[in-house]
Amino acid sequence: MDKNMENENLVKIKQDAIAIQESDLKDAIQSIENENTKSSFALGFAGVLMGLIFGNIDDLLFWQKIIFSLLTIISIGFAFYNILSKKLATHTKVDEIFVNNSPNNWEKYLNYKHLRLRDCYSEAKTLLYRKTTLTKIAYFFLILDLLFLLIINLI
Fold it and tell me: Domain of 41?
């Protein structure tokens, strides 16, 4: 096999690897958006709890009002923080780079693209883990809030 054919095979392997990396990154970004949606549901659930308790607020003792309010506010705070927290900045469009680079820079570009995608994916995973944790915390406080209300027999 001549040197030119080996280089073409290597370029094809690198292109395939980059396509896989881009797919993984897009999946991670979708998962991050799903966490934002889950946090939105937590906000909705908190609103439902507040609506249920609002009609019976006079039946609560002062300390019960404080505990209910704190649990609800903490849950809402975590959910809002999760939704508004950092977005992932990615650059997955490669068409303009393909057009702007000459073929002799192709392997250099592929190596750069691989490293950039690797860094973006690492950042996406870190952000996803953080958002998942924040969502779980928001739901945890909502569940505590619901259990508290059940214990004091308001629902």
Answer: 3-151
